[in-house]
Amino acid sequence: MNFTVVNREVCVENIRLIGVSNSSVFLVGDTDTITLSSVFDTPPEALIVGPFVPL
């Protein structure tokens, strides 16, 4: 059996995502590098840094 694979460009015009889970990756086509990032929606004044918890 002879099998030939030709990789060409992938053209995606529009993607609509409705929701994203806590840990998810959405890929279109091949990738060489994946870069991770994190975003918090908590305001800075709500974070408690240190050993003491206010009563």
Structure description:
- The chain is largely without helices or strands.
- The N and C termini lie far apart (74 Å).
- This is Spore germination protein PD.
Features:
0% helix, little secondary structure, 55 residues, single chain, elongated
Present the secondary structure layout.
Layout: no helix or strand
Organism: Alteribacillus bidgolensis
Protein name: Spore germination protein PD
Q: How far apart, in Å, are the first and last alpha carbons?
A: 74 Å
Shape: elongated
How large a portion of the residues is in β-strands, by DSSP E?
Answer: under 5%
**Could you tell me the number of beta strands?**
0
Structural class: little secondary structure
How many separate helices?
0
Radius of gyration, taken over Cα atoms and rounded to an integer in Å: 21 Å
What percent of the residues sit in helical stretches (DSSP H or I)? under 10%
Described by its quaternary structure, the protein is single chain
Mean pLDDT: 76
Segments where pLDDT lies below 50 for 5+ residues?
none
Taking the sheet with the most strands, its summary is: none
Protein name: Spore germination protein PD
Question: What's this model, at a glance?
Answer:
With 55 residues, the protein is mostly loops. It has no helix or strand.
